[in-house]
Amino acid sequence: MILDWTTFLLLLSAATPILLAALGETIVERAGVLNLGVEGMMITGALAGFAAAHATGSPAAGFLGGAVAGAALSLIFAALTQYLLTNQVATGLALTLFGLGLTAMFGKPYEGVKAPAMPGGPLGINWVVWLGLALVPVIWLVLNRTRAGLVLRAVGENHDAAHALGYKVRGVRVAAIAIGGALAGLGGAYVSIATVLQWTEGMTAGAGWIALAIVVFAGWSPWGVLAGAWLFGGVTVLQLRLQAAGVAVPVQLLSMAPYLATILVLVVISARQKYARSASGAAPGSLGRTFHATR
Amino acid sequence: MLRLEPRTAAPWWLGLAAPVLAVLATMLAGGLLFALMGFDPVAAIRTIFWDPLFGPAAGYSRPQLLVKAGPLVLIACGLAVGFRAGIWNIGAEGQYIVGGICGAAVALAAYPAEGAWIFPAMVLAGAAGGWAWGMIPAVLRNRFGASEILVSLMLVYVAQKLAAWAAFGPMRNPEGFGMPGSRNLQQYPPAANPELIAGTGIHWGVVAAGVAVLATWLLMSRHIRGFHIRAAGMAPRAARFAGVRPEALVAFCLGLSGALAGMAGLFEAAGPGGQITDSFGSGYGFTAIIVAFLGRLHPLGILLAGLLLALTYIGGELAQLMLSLPAATVQVFQGMLLFFLLAFDTLTRFRIRWGKAA
Amino acid sequence: MTASDLFQAQGLTKTYPGVRANDDVSFSVRPGEIHALLGENGAGKSTLVKMIYGLVRPDAGRMTLDGRPHAPADPRAARGAGVGMVFQHFSLFDALSVAENIALGMDAPPPRAELSRRIADVSAAYGLPLNPSRRVASLSAGERQRVEIVRCLLGRPRLLIMDEPTSVLTPQEAEILFATLRQLAAQGVAILYISHKLEEIRTHCDRATILRHGRVVGTVTPRDHSARELAAMMVGAEMRVVDRSGRQAGEVVLEVAGLTSAAGLDGTPLREVGFAVRAGEILGIGGVAGNGQEELIAALSGETTGRPGTVRLGGADVSALGPEARRRAGLLAAPEDRLGHAAVPEMSLTENAILTAATRQQLVRGGLIDHAAARRFAERVIAEFDVRTPGPGTAAGALSGGNLQKYVIGREILQEPRALVVNQPTWGVDASAAAAIRQALLDLAARGAAVVVISQDLDELLELSDRFAALNEGRLSAPVPTEGLTVEQIGLMLGGAHGMEVAHVAA
Q1: How far apart are CA B195 and CA A131, in angstroms?
Q2: Contact A259 B327 (CB under 8 A)
Q3: For residue B357, what pLDDT is reported?
Q4: In C, which residues are within 8 Å of B355 by CB distance?
Q5: How far is B72 from chain C (nearest CA, A)?
Q6: What CA–CA distance (Å, rounded) separates C311 from C295?
Q7: Res. B269: pLDDT tops 60
Q8: In Å, how far is A133's CA from the nearest CA of chain C?
Q9: What is the distance between the alpha carbons of residues A92 and B45, in angstroms, rounded to a whole number?
Q10: Strand-pair partners of C453
């Protein structure tokens, strides 16, 4: 009863926003940048996507709008951290606070408005879910089998060495940040257009932070991100099912499940990485460090 | 081409100039934003930054300044200590909520008893609750290496659910006609945190904030532990060489900031807020992050920054009332302020030169 | 300059704020020669080669390669023109494989299989065996250098720049490297060899251009000059000879037995390390970087604590004590990395005095810092160790390497330790500061302290120490008297060629 086809579809759908955002953040972090603004980019994508879908009546335009808005917001982060060399942790936090404020301010007129209907797709799975699934092998291939992916990993692993070899560390990172922003925005738009079907303030409810945790859980690998996103999709759906089944646990406590599960997974994975110290699944060498080309 | 050159020593006034410039830039950008939205930018800026202090309704809004600044300063003082050491507690909001719940729980358990012990016990319980909530990420980081950023943040959501559960469940006011939310502690004198001097907005939380400013200033500038905290933030290996145990520092910083945030939560629950509701968290824990940065992680700076951000809260409410600006304007302002601050901070760390790239 | 020159530099000048790194530098390199670039730290060698490799653009002057103007905009252009460079601090990516690392150094890498074949070809031709699929993180220092060299050779350079390549090699490994370089030179490749190791340059290099304070002092044939003469040209003055007199070995002060520890970051665990140092004695510990030096000084300073009985000071067991408690007992240390380990770069010299002297100099009372006392102590260090700085309020990071090192060593010495452990005390320090530091260590020993000097500079160890021990893969050899020890013997103690094969040169 717990895992039938409908439940699986629900799981896929619940996992998609986190999958998209976490895939984007994987690219960003593999380039050596820690962008803690995922939540802010997602909520911005959720509102911009919803507004675009509402204005055009087309969910596709909505997703595009969400991605563009997410990328645009991420460029603020890119400008600050890559050109003005600000602290990545503080700047990412600022991005999240700014995104939450901005959407709360501009989102008022959209409250209570219904989203245009999502078209279905093959097997009753919509196209954005398919896109998220397809991106997993594509990103893996690009990262591990192409020149561009190699350069990106090199920049993230050791930015000084990459610079010494003549690679444009800043350019690679700005591009990665923008792609990460677009995917986070797309994930956010999925929440408003395809999952909740309306706009409410703060509706991403920490999904961006969970996506950040999943990147760590995944060991910076797209396949791991897929596993992590499904795990959280599963926890979310299970929790909803238990609520619906009228389990004798208060709703408020049940809805803690995704957050507690994130902490649990983070602990298990961190402990494994701390004690195993294996080269695979380790954080990129230059992650979160500011690059400044000196002499 | 524009190029940055690291400074080895910055003139002292640059450290003050960055926050001031950031505030001015925020006003400019904010004015622009209002103009785009079709509001009169000058009137809007004046309503937010001037009227709460000197406008016609200043008599009402001036005391509010300290009411709002109290928790911000109290929380930010603790956060700044950790930020100095490179320990990122961004879950103060959660510690604030749990502190409020724990403190209120003592009061509700004691109800309707009388006694001078009740309020001090509530303060202790609030601090202990916040401390415990802050120690969760500390222990998980020390034992397993889990990121304190993500864990403390996840615990904010957990705390919010906890508050909702408490408000609907065990702490619900039995005489509240089924409405969610606890008894109003303002109406239970032994547990209330009243205004101490009429018309000033000063309550025990404001007093505690003042003490926290002095205490953290003493800690960071005179005490060897503060010295070690600063060393650990700038050069972790050097700090270890000096004899600092990183685990002890993580526990100290997260515990301290948790306790202060928890206390702030209690003062709010027993004072201006009055009760635990399902939406008890009001964002002070996040705004305090901005206060800490805007105050340059210095207790005196935090005091000023706390007052400024309190002003934007009150001004924002006023602007909502007078000009029907959206309520979230304040949030946007705060986000922009942090951006501009980070950007202008670059000036203190680098010299900007025009010229060929090296 | 003759028409047969492969590379010429004329009037190269590069100024950074406050320093003229290169001032009107002119020299030339012929095809098939190994040409040394000799100079002290800060003489401008690195800036010069970075200009040739396109990482830095000169303010004035010009370069030609093969008679054509050479003004690379970036390293890619330099590689295209036929310049290859092997960096001092390896420009390798630990988490990537050998093949990926090599591909990153090429502008148009062939497909994987083809690349692996070509790596195998070059490896075989120059006796540099490599496994393309190995992760770089698992390679030894010598093997990592091979990766860099192979990466350069695949680009078929005509000018190969090597930045202090033997600083991470044992003498035997260095011999293997020179065999490869001579083979390349025989094929007409010009090699620009940066070093400050005089004997090595005298034995292996055809010509040497000497830099001092950014200017060319002259180009000479190193074989025709003694090491002393070369040093004098490099430093601009006769080297001061240290005074070793006046020391008498007393009781055992520092005793280490069965010391075993976990590996630090990218390091080697210590395996059953043991030695004893007497009062008035200097023990030299040599070894190639990454063989446990970091772990050893951490275990002695107290940053890592050990099993009971592994570290004793004056007979008392200090194994379980942390750094502050050990300092109180009289065991002091100065780690290798000045910026970020021995000192906090952003903090003032006064604050850096508090860092390690808080207890012994009573700079802290009841938890509160006595800033005046700290400033007085910092001023004493500055005065007695001739630290050139505007004052104790200056940030440590603003000092030159030599001055900061004098401050760091002076800070420990003025606390009159019973035992002092230093790691790389003169690394990256100019000659006069290095001489002053060495003399200060000898004087400390003469006053009755036990001193342990960990260093990769064999000449320094031979000059300072009474007994010598080698640290190799976390194991410490039995200490032997330094008198009469040769560089070859030391090389063997350091692990010889670490199993690296000698180049099989098919003439």
Answers
A1: 58
A2: no
A3: 43
A4: none
A5: 28
A6: 14
A7: yes
A8: 27
A9: 27
A10: C284, C422
Please report the DSSP string for B292-314 in residue order: HHHTTT-HHHHHHHHHHHHHHHH
Residues belonging to chain B with any Cβ–Cβ distance to chain C shorter than 8 Å: 5, 8-9, 222-225, 227, 230-231, 234-235, 237-243, 245, 356, 358
Residues 183 through 202 of chain C touching chain A, CB cutoff 8 Å:
none
- Check residue B357 and report its DSSP letter: -
Q: Say if C137 is an interface residue toward chain A (CB within 8 Å).
A: yes
Classify domain A5-276 by CATH number: 1.10.3470
Nearest chain B residue to C17 by CA distance is B5
Q: Are the beta carbons of C486 and C199 closer than 8 angstroms?
A: no
Which residues are CB-contacts of A294 (< 8 A; sequence separation ≥ 6)? B6, B358
Nearest to A150 among C94, C104, C137 (CB): C104
| Distance between CA atoms of residues A177 and A181, nearest Å | 6
For C323, which of B224, B230, B243 is closest by C-beta distance? Answer: B243
Residue B175: phi and psi, rounded to 5, are -105, 25
Q: Residue B327: list chain A partners with CB under 8 A.
A: 104
- CA angle centred on C169, ends C163 and C172, rounded to 5°: 125
Q: Contact partners of B by the rule of 3+ C-beta pairs under 8 A?
A: A, C
- From A158, which residue of chain C is nearest by alpha-carbon distance? C93
* Minimum distance, in Å, between the CA of residue A147 and any CA atom of chain C: 8
The shortest C-alpha distance from C9 to chain B (Å) reads 19
Instruction: Give the start-to-end residue ranges of the domains of chain A.
Output: 5-276
Mean pLDDT of B40-48: 88
Cβ separation B165–A250 shorter than 8 A: yes
**Residue A57 burial (CB count, 10 A):** 10
**pLDDT tens for each residue of A237-290:** 888 888 888 777 787 888 888 889 889 988 888 887 766 544 456 778 788 777
Of B162, B326, B336, the CB nearest to A108: B326
A26-64 pLDDT, tens per residue?
999 999 999 999 999 999 999 999 999 999 989 999 999
**What is B83-152 written as a DSSP string?**
HHTT-----HHHHHHHHHHHHHHHHHHHTT---TTHHHHHHHHHHHHHHHHHHHHHHHHHHH---HHHHH
Report the gap between the CA of A25 and the closest CA in chain B (Å).
14
CA distance C102 to C154: 9
Give yes or no for a cis peptide into B112 (omega within 30° of 0).
yes
Domains defined for chain C, CATH in brackets = 7-235 (3.40.50.300), 252-347+414-493 (3.40.50.300)
Question: Using CA atoms, how far apart are residues A245 and C313, in angstroms rounded to an integer?
Answer: 69
Closest chain C residue to the Cα of B355, Cα to Cα: C59
Partner residue opposite B241 with nearest CB, options C325, C342, C368: C342
Angle in degrees, CA C107, C111, C112, rounded to 5:
110
Q: Which chains pack against C, by 3+ Cβ pairs within 8 A?
A: A, B
Beta strands C215-220 and C7-16: pairing type?
unpaired
pLDDT value at residue C1: 45
Least confident of A60-69, A94-103, B316-325: B316-325
Mutation for testing the A interface, residue in B161, B330, B340 having most A CBs under 10 Å = B161
Tell me the per-residue pLDDT of A10-22, one tens digit each, with 9 for 90 and over.
Answer: 888 899 999 999 9
User: Please, what is the Cα angle at B325 between B319 and B328, to 5 degrees?
Assistant: 100
Please give the share of chain C, as a percent, with pLDDT higher than 90.
Answer: 42
| A135, A143 Cβ separation under 8 angstroms | no
| Burial per residue of C464-494, b for 16 or more beta-carbon CB atoms within 10 angstroms, e otherwise | bbbbbbbbbbbbbbebeebeebeeeebbebb
User: For chain C, which residues score pLDDT lower than 70?
Assistant: 1-3, 18, 88-90, 237-242, 246, 263-267, 496-507
At residue C166, the pLDDT reads: 77
